[in-house]
C-alpha cells in the first residue's frame, strides 16, 4: 500500500485517512477494514498507574508463622483436599479472629495451642536448632574418628545437609507428629 | 555466410534470439494461457489453476450465476493481464520462428513445408559452425516454448484469496508437511496414552509391529523432497524435516503411521538380488563348474570355477606361480576366503597377457568372485557384494597430458 | 564395516596379520566359520599331525618317511653342512636351534639308486631340477648326508655360479696352461671346504705321479693329498692347479683304492652357460672370461665325464645362476644348453616338485611347533589353507609367507 | 491466594450476570436492526458520523448497507457471551511474567504484583478481548482474510489447525523479512495482504518482538495481539492483555477466534454477502 512506511506516525487509521484525503487512494479502493476500524476504533489506553503489591491479611499471619516455626516438612500435592499445616494454621487463626473472643495479641499463641490440641505439634526454630545440634554432636562423635577436620559446627552443618544422620532427624520429626 | 542476403541474415538472427537459457521455474503450463485466450480448447492443465474460470471481461467484473457482480481482485487482474501479455508475446515469437524456419529451408534448398526441427538443427550447424565446447552456448533455433521459461500459475483465486492456508509462509507445501508430521506425532502420543491406560502401561505391539522396519529403506533425498513438494527447500529445512521424521519413526507406535512414513522413504535396492548369477554346468567328468568373466583396466579374464576341487589354480596354463608377487595371489585368495572355499574349488583362468599383473589379478579376482556366486547362498553373495568383490573397478589409466612427462609428472624445470 | 572389508580386500593375505579387521567383519556374520582367518574364536588346527621322525640316518629313509623332518646331529652339521646350506636356511635352522631336513621323495629315490648301483660302470649322473625354492639344494644335502654316512669322499661345490661371475674378481692367467684362467681365491676356498668335508678320509691317499709346480717346487709320487691341499692353501697361485691334481688323483684312484666319490655340484648349468657381459668374469685386460676358460670349471667338467667309475655325480640345475634372459624354463635341457646337455648326456633328471599338501602341512606343523608361526589365526586350519594357497606350496615361498606371521 | 481467588470468583459472577443481561438486550437490538435493514434495503443508510473524505461504499450498495448496518450493532455476532472473567481466570490468562520483565506500556493493564509476578487485570482484558473478537468477526464478515500468527512452538499445531479448519490463513513459522514489505518480489505477483493479523503471541523469541507486527503496521494492516506483561503493545492496533505462554490460555483464545470467524462466515452466508464462486476452505 502506498501509505507511509513510518509505523510510529499515528495509527493505521489516521494514515489511511491521510491517503484518502490526499487522493492517493481512491475511496472505492479502500481496504475492507477501514470502515470497521473507524466504527470500532481501539479503546483508549488507560492512564499509567503505579503497580501495587497484592497483599492479604493472611499473608501477615503466614509470615509470622514461618518466622516462628520451622518448616513443617513436605506437603502432599497429589491430594488437593488435604491442607498443609501452615494453611491449617492460617485458617484457624482467621477463624479465631472472626470469633473475636481472643485478644489480638494472644491470637497467635491461641492458634498454636488450638492446633496442638488436635495433635499438630509445631516446632520452633530454636527447638529445631537444638535438636539438630544434638544430632550434630552425636554425629560428630561418631565421625570424629574418621574425619577429625570437621570440627567447625557451622560448616559441618552445611556439609551434612544430605548426610544420613540428617535423614534420621527428619524421620524422627514425622514420627513425633504421628 | 557471405551468400546470404541481408534479409535472410536478419531473419535468421531474429530467429536465433531464442538462444536464451531456458531457466525453468516451477510447473506452469502453457495450456492455461492458451485456455484463457481461447487458442486451444483441449486444455488439460496439470496445475491448480484450472479451478479459476476464464475471465473474459476486462473491467474486472463478471456476472456470476446468481446474477450478482463478482469482484475480481486486483492481484488476479494483474496476473491475468500479465498472462495475456506473455501469451501475445509467445504468439509473436512462434510466428517469427515459423517464418525463420521457412527461410532456413529456402537457404538450404529444401521443401519449407516438410522442414523438421532436425533439419533446422542440421542447417544451423552447417551455416553457423561453432567451436564452442558447451553445446548450450552454440547457436540454436528452437520452438519458443522450449526456450522461454514457463510462467508460474496463480496461487490464488479470482477473489484474491490464496488457495493454501499457509500461503503467507512462502513455502506452503513444506510447512504443511511439517504440520502433518506434528499432528501425526500428537496422534501417536494420544494413542500411546490410551494404550497405557487400557493395558496398564504395557501395550503389546510386537505382533503388529513386527513387519515395520526402516532397515530396508532410507529417507528420500533432498532433491526428491523438492520434487515432491514442488518448492525450493533449503538444506537446513531438509535437515529439519529429517529430524522430525526420525522422531516420528522412532516412536514405539510408529507402525501405525507406516503408510505416511513410507511415502517419504525410498527402498534400498538389494543389489545382489539383481545380480546375475552364472549357471552351474557339468563337464564331461561330471564335475560342476561355473563360468564368469571380469575386467580390470584393459585386462579381461574368463574363469571357470570347479567344485568340488582341491584348490588347484591354473592361469593361462600355469599355476599360481604365474603371479610371482604375493599381493596378487592374495587378491585372488580374498573372494575364496570370504566364501570359505579355499582349497575346495579349482580355478581355471584365461587372462589376456596385456596389462600389468595388477590388472590381470584384478580381472581374475572379479571373474572368480562372480563365478563363485553360483556355489554360495544369498547371504554370502551379499557379503561378497558388500566387500566390493562383485563391483567392477572403473578406474583406468589416466591419459598423458601435453606439456607433461606423464599424466601428472612434470618435466624437470630449473630456473637457471 | 563395508569400508573395512574393502580395506582388507586390498591386502588380504595381510589379513593374517590384520586379523582384528576380519574379526570385526566376522562378528557381523555372527561367528560363522566360513571366513577362514576371520574365525572369531581361533581354535587349533586338527590337521596337526606327525611331522618328525626319529630316524636320523638317511640310509634308513624310505618312502614311508617322506614328508617327515629328521634331525641332523650337530657334529655332522659342522663337518659337512657348513657352507652348503643357503644363508636363509641356515639362519632359520639356527633360530630353531636344531638342524632339520625334510625327507622328500626325489632324494629318497636318488639314495635308493645309489644304494643299489653297480659302481663298475662309468659314473652315474643325476640332476635335480625344479622351480626356484622347490628344494633342490635340500635334496642334494640329503643325498650328501646319505653318502657321508656311507663314508664316501665328497667333492662338493656349494655354488658353481660363483666361479663364472663377478667382474672384480681376482683372475690370473693359468700357470699350467696358457689361455685358461685361475681363480686363486675361489680355488683355495674350495680346497679348505673339501678338507673340512673329508677330514678323515684322505689319510691313505697319495699322489700317483709327479707334479712340478715351479722349477724349485714339485710334488713327488706318493705325496699325501693332504699336502697337496696344504700347498694349494699356502700358495694361492697354484691353488687351481692343486684342485686339478686332487680331482685327477681321486678319479684315478677311486676304482683302484675302492673308495667312493660323490661329486655334488650345485647349479651345474653355470659351467656351460656364459654370464651376461656386465656381470661376467673378466681378466686383467677387461676381457670376458668364458666358463670353459676357467681352470676350475675345466677341472670339474672332467669329473662329469664318464671316464672313471666307483663314484656318482649328483647335480642341480638352477635358474638363478643363468643369465637374466635365460630363465624361462627350469628343465635341465633348457638350462644346460646344447653344449652342457651333450656333455652331461647320459644322466637321470630328477624333478623336485613343490610340496604336496601332506608335506606342506607337515612343514607348517613344524613351523608352528617351532613357534615360527605365532599369529593365532595362522595356526588354525583355515589359516593354514590360506598360507598354502598364497605360497602355492612352494617351500621357499612358504617360508617367506610364514616369516611375517 | 485464597482471598484473591475468592475475590476473583465474586467478580466473575458479577460479570457473568451482566453479560447475560447484556446479551438479551443485544439480541433484541439485533433483531430490530435486521428488520430495519429489510425494510430500508436499497436506501442509503448513513453509517458514519462525520467524515467527508470517506465516501459511502461502492461495491454493490445493497451488500454494503447490510454490512454497515451490522457495523452499527454493538454485538452483531453475539460474541460477548462467549467468555467470562472466570473462563479467563481458569485458563490462567491473568498470569503475567516476572515483575522485573514488565514492559512499561503494559502497566495500566496490570492488576498488581503478587510475590514477584505480575497479575494481569482480567476486568480490563475481557472488554478488550470482546472488542477484538468483534472486529475480527466484522472483517471476516466482509470477506477479509485473517492471518493467525504465533511463534510459540508448543501451541503451533493448534494455531495452524484452527486457521485451516476455519478457512483462514496462518503463519507460525520463522518470519522471513519482507513478507509484507517486500511481498511483490517474494511472491513474484502483485502482493496479496491479509486484512487482519491476529498475533496469539507478540514475541518472536524471548528477546525480540514478532517482525510481522511492525510489517503489518507499515503496510496498514490492522493487527490484534495478545500481549503479555513483558510485551510492547504500541504497534498493535488492538491489543488484549493476557498470558501468551500457557497452552490453556492459547487454547481459549483459539476457541474464541474460531467461534468469531465461524459465526461471521455463517452470518455472511445468511446475509447473502458471500458470492465468491471459489471455495476457499481447504483445497
Walk me through what this model shows.
The complex is a heterotetramer of chains A (178), B (416), C (405) and D (283). Chain A is 54% helix and 0% strand. Chain A is mainly alpha-helical. Chain B is α+β, with helices and mostly antiparallel strands and 416 residues long. In chain B, α1 crosses α3. Chain C contains 14 helices and 11 strands. In chain C, strands 4-9-10-3-11 form a 5-stranded parallel β-sheet, with helices on both faces. In chain C, strands 1-2 form a two-stranded antiparallel sheet. In chain C, α9 packs parallel to α10 and α13 packs across α14. The radius of gyration of chain C is 24 Å and the shape is globular. The two termini of chain C are 25 Å apart. In chain D, α4 packs parallel to α8 and α5 packs parallel to α8. Chain D has a domain of 191 residues: Glucose-6-phosphate isomerase like protein, domain 1 (Rossmann fold). Chain D has 8 helices and 8 strands, in the order αααβββαβαβαβαββα. With 283 residues, chain D is α/β, with parallel strands linked by helices. A 5-stranded parallel β-sheet of chain D has the order 5-4-6-7-8, with helices on both faces. Chain D has a 3-stranded antiparallel β-sheet with strand order 1-3-2, with no helix packed on it. Chain D starts with a helix and ends in a 13-residue tail after the last helix. Chain D is globular and about 55 Å long. The N terminus and C terminus of chain D are likely disordered. The interface between A and D is large, with 41 and 56 residues. Chain C: One of its GO terms (cellular component) is ribosome.
Secondary structure topology:
The complex is a heterotetramer of chains A (178), B (416), C (405) and D (283).
Chain A: H1 12-22, H2 33-39, H3 57-68, H4 85-99, H5 107-117, H6 125-143, H7 153-159, H8 164-177
Helix pairs in contact in A: 3-4, 4-5
Chain B: H1 6-15, H2 30-36, E1 61-63, E2 69-71, H3 74-108, H4 117-127, H5 144-147, H6 172-198, H7 206-209, E3 217-219, H8 222-229, H9 235-250, H10 258-263, E4 265-267, H11 271-274, E5 280-282, E6 288-296, E7 299-307, E8 313-315, H12 326-339, E9 346-351, H13 357-372, H14 378-386
Parallel strand pairs in B: 8-9
Antiparallel strand pairs in B: 1-2, 3-4, 5-6, 6-7, 7-9
Helix pairs in contact in B: 1-3, 2-3, 3-4, 6-9, 12-13
Chain C: H1 2-10, H2 19-28, E1 69-71, H3 74-81, H4 87-96, E2 100-102, H5 105-115, E3 125-129, H6 136-149, E4 153-157, E5 172-173, E6 181-182, H7 184-197, E7 211-212, E8 218-219, H8 225-234, H9 239-258, E9 261-265, H10 295-304, E10 311-316, H11 332-344, E11 348-351, H12 357-369, H13 381-391, H14 395-403
Parallel strand pairs in C: 3-10, 3-11, 4-9, 9-10
Antiparallel strand pairs in C: 1-2, 5-6, 7-8
Family (chain A): Belongs to the mitochondrion-specific ribosomal protein mS23 family.
Keywords (chain A): Mitochondrion, Ribonucleoprotein, Ribosomal protein
Biased composition (Polar residues) (chain A): 135-154
Amino acid at each position: 500500500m502506498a501509505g507511509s512506511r513510518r509505523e510510529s506516525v499515528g495509527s493505521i487509521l489516521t494514515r489511511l485517512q491521510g491517503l484518502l484525503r490526499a487522493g492517493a487512494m481512491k475511496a472505492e479502493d479502500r481496504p475492507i477494514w477501514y470502515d470497521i476500524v473507524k466504527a470500532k476504533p481501539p479503546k483508549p489506553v488507560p492512564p499509567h498507574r503505579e503497580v501495587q503489591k497484592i497483599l492479604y491479611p493472611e499473608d501477615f499471619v503466614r509470615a509470622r508463622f514461618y518466622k516462628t516455626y520451622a518448616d513443617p516438612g513436605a506437603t502432599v500435592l497429589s491430594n488437593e483436599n488435604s491442607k498443609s499445616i501452615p494453611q491449617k494454621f492460617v485458617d484457624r487463626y482467621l477463624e479465631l479472629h472472626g470469633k473475636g473472643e481472643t485478644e489480638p495479641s494472644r491470637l497467635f499463641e491461641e492458634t498454636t495451642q488450638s492446633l496442638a490440641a488436635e495433635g499438630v505439634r509445631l516446632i520452633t526454630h530454636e527447638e529445631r536448632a537444638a535438636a539438630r545440634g544434638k544430632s550434630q554432636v552425636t554425629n560428630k562423635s561418631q565421625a570424629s574418628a574418621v574425619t577429625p577436620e570437621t570440627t567447625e559446627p557451622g560448616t559441618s552443618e552445611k556439609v551434612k545437609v544430605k548426610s544420613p544422620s540428617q535423614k534420621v532427624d527428619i524421620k524422627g520429626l514425622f514420627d513425633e507428629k504421628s | 555466410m557471405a551468400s546470404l542476403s541481408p534479409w535472410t541474415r536478419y531473419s535468421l538472427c531474429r530467429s536465433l534470439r531464442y538462444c536464451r537459457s531456458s531457466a525453468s521455474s516451477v510447473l506452469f503450463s502453457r495450456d492455461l494461457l492458451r485456455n484463457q485466450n481461447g487458442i486451444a480448447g483441449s486444455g488439460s492443465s496439470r496445475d491448480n489453476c484450472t479451478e479459476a474460470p476464464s475471465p473474459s471481461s476486462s473491467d474486472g467484473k463478471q456476472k456470476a450465476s446468481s446474477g450478482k457482480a463478482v469482484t475480481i481482485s486486483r492481484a488476479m487482474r494483474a496476473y491475468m493481464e500479465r498472462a495475456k501479455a506473455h501469451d501475445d508475446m509467445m504468439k509473436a515469437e512462434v510466428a517469427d520462428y515459423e517464418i525463420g524456419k521457412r527461410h532456413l529451408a529456402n537457404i538450404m534448398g529444401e521443401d519449407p513445408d516438410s522442414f523438421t526441427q532436425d533439419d533446422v538443427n542440421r542447417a544451423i550447424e552447417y551455416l553457423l559452425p561453432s567451436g564452442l565446447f558447451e553445446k548450450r552456448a552454440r547457436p540454436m533455433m528452437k520452438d519458443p516454448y522450449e526456450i522461454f521459461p514457463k510462467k508460474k500459475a496463480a496461487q490464488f483465486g479470482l477473489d484474491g484469496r490464496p488457495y493454501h492456508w499457509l500461503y503467507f509462509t512462502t513455502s506452503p507445501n513444506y510447512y504443511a508437511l511439517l504440520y502433518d508430521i506434528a499432528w501425526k506425532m500428537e496422534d501417536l502420543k494420544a494413542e500411546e496414552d490410551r494404550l497405557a491406560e487400557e493395558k496398564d502401561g504395557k501395550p503389546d505391539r510386537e505382533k503388529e509391529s513386527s513387519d515395520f522396519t526402516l532397515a530396508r529403506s532410507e529417507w528420500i533425498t533432498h532433491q526428491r523432497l523438492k520434487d515432491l513438494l514442488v518448492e525450493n527447500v533449503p538444506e537446513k529445512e531438509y535437515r529439519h524435516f529429517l529430524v522430525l521424521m526420525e522422531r516420528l519413526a522412532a516412536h514405539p507406535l510408529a507402525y501405525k503411521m507406516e503408510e505416511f512414513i513410507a511415502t517419504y522413504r525410498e527402498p534400498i535396492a538389494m543389489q545382489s538380488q539383481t545380480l546375475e548369477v552364472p549357471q552351474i554346468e557339468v563337464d564331461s567328468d561330471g564335475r560342476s563348474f561355473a563360468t564368469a568373466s571380469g575386467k580390470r583396466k584393459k585386462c579381461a579374464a574368463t574363469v571357470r570355477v570347479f567344485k568340488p576341487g582341491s584348490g588347484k589354480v591354473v592361469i593361462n596354463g600355469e599355476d599360481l606361480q604365474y603371479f610371482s608377487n604375493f599381493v596378487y595371489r592374495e587378491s585372488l585368495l580374498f573372494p575364496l576366503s570370504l566364501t570359505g572355499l579355499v582349497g575346495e574349488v579349482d580355478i581355471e583362468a584365461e587372462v589376456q597377457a596385456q596389462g600389468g599383473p595388477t590388472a590381470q589379478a584384478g580381472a581374475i579376482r572379479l571373474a572368480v568372485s562372480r563365478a563363485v556366486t553360483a556355489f554360495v547362498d544369498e547371504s554370502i553373495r551379499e557379503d561378497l557384494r558388500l566387500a566390493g568383490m562383485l563391483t567392477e573397478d572403473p578406474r583406468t589409466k589416466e591419459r598423458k597430458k601435453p606439456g607433461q612427462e606423464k599424466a601428472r609428472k612434470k618435466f624437470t624445470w630449473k630456473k637457471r | 564395516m563395508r569400508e573395512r572389508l574393502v580395506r582388507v580386500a586390498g591386502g588380504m593375505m595381510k589379513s593374517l596379520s590384520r586379523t582384528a579387521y576380519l574379526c570385526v567383519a566376522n562378528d557381523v556374520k555372527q561367528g560363522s566359520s566360513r571366513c577362514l582367518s576371520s574365525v572369531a574364536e581361533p581354535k587349533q588346527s586338527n590337521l596337526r599331525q606327525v611331522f618328525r621322525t626319529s630316524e636320523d640316518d638317511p640310509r634308513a629313509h624310505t618312502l614311508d618317511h617322506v614328508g617327515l623332518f629328521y634331525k641332523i646331529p650337530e657334529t655332522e652339521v659342522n663337518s659337512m653342512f657348513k657352507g652348503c646350506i643357503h644363508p636363509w636356511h641356515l639362519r632359520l635352522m639356527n633360530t630353531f636351534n636344531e638342524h632339520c631336513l625334510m625327507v622328500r621323495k626325489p632324494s629318497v629315490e636318488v639314495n635308493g639308486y645309489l644304494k643299489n648301483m653297480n659302481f663298475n660302470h662309468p659314473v652315474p649322473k643325476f640332476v635335480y631340477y625344479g622351480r626356484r625354492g622347490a628344494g633342490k639344494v635340500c635334496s642334494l644335502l640329503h643325498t650328501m648326508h646319505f653318502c657321508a654316512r656311507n663314508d664316501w669322499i665328497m667333492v662338493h661345490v656349494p655354488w658353481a655360479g660363483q666361479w663364472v661371475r663377478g667382474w672384480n674378481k681376482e683372475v690370473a692367467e693359468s700357470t699350467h696352461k696358457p689361455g685358461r684362467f685361475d681363480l686363486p681365491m675361489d680355488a683355495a676356498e674350495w680346497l679348505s671346504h673339501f678338507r673340512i668335508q673329508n677330514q678323515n678320509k684322505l689319510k691313505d691317499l697319495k699322489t700317483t705321479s709327479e707334479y712340478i709346480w715351479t722349477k724349485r717346487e714339485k710334488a713327488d709320487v706318493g705325496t699325501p693329498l693332504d699336502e697337496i691341499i696344504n700347498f694349494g692353501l699356502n700358495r694361492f697361485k697354484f691353488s687351481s692347479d692343486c684342485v686339478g691334481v686332487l680331482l685327477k688323483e681321486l678319479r684315478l684312484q677311486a676304482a683302484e683304492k675302492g673308495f667312493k666319490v660323490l661329486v655334488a655340484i650345485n647349479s651345474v648349468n653355470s659351467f656351460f652357460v656364459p654370464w651376461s657381459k656386465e656381470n661376467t668374469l673378466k681378466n686383467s685386460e677387461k676381457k670376458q672370461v668364458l666358463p670353459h676358460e676357467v681352470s676350475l670349471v675345466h677341472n670339474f667338467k672332467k669329473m662329469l665325464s664318464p671316464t672313471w667309475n666307483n663314484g656318482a655325480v649328483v647335480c642341480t640345475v638352477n635358474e638363478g645362476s643363468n643369465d637374466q634372459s635365460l630363465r624361462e624354463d627350469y628343465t635341465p635341457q633348457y638350462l644346460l644348453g646344447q653344449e652342457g646337455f651333450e656333455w652331461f648326456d647320459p644322466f637321470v633328471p630328477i624333478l623336485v616338485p613343490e610340496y604336496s599338501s601332506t608335506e606342506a602341512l607337515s612343514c607348517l606343523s613344524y613351523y608352528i611347533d617351532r613357534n615360527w608361526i605365532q599369529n593365532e589365526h595362522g595356526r588354525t586350519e583355515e589359516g593354514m589353507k590360506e598360507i598354502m594357497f598364497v605360497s602355492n606350496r612352494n617351500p621357499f615361498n612358504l617360508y617367506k609367507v610364514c616369516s611375517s606371521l | 491466594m485464597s482471598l484473591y481467588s475468592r475475590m476473583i470468583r465474586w467478580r466473575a459472577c458479577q460479570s457473568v450476570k451482566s453479560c447475560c443481561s447484556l446479551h438479551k438486550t443485544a439480541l433484541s437490538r439485533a433483531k430490530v436492526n435486521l428488520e430495519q435493514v429489510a425494510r430500508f434495503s436499497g436506501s442509503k443508510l448513513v453509517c458514519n458520523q462525520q467524515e467527508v473524505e470517506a465516501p459511502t461504499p461502492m461495491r454493490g450498495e445493497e451488500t454494503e448497507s447490510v454490512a454497515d448496518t451490522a457495523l452499527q450493532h454493538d454485538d452483531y455476532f453475539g460474541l460477548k457471551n462467549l467468555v467470562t472473567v472466570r473462563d479467563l481466570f481458569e485458563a490462567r490468562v491473568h498470569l503475567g511474567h516476572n515483575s522485573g520483565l514488565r514492559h512499561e506500556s503494559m502497566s495500566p493493564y496490570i492488576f498488581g504484583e503478587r510475590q514477584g509476578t505480575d497479575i494481569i487485570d482480567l476486568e480490563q482484558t475481557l472488554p478488550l478481548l470482546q472488542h477484538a473478537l468483534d472486529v475480527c468477526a466484522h472483517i471476516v464478515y466482509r470477506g477479509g482474510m485473517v492471518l493467525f500468527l504465533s511463534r510459540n512452538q508448543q501451541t503451533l499445531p493448534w494455531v495452524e489447525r484452527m486457521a485451516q479448519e476455519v478457512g483462514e490463513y496462518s503463519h507460525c513459522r520463522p518470519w522471513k523479512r519482507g513478507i509484507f514489505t517486500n511481498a511483490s518480489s517474494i511472491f513474484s505477483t502483485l502482493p496479496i495482504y491479509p486484512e487482519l493479523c491476529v498475533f496469539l503471541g507478540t514475541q518472536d523469541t524471548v528477546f525480540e518482538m514478532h517482525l510481522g507486527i511492525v510489517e503489518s503496521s507499515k503496510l496498514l494492516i490492522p493487527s490484534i495481539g495478545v500481549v503479555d506483561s513483558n510485551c510492547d503493545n504500541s504497534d498493535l492496533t488492538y491489543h488484549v492483555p493476557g498470558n501468551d505462554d500457557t497452552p490453556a490460555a492459547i487454547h481459549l483464545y483459539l476457541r474464541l477466534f474460531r467461534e468469531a470467524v465461524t459465526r461471521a462466515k455463517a452470518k455472511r452466508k445468511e446475509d447473502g454477502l458471500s458470492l465468491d464462486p471459489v471455495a476457499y476452505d481447504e483445497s
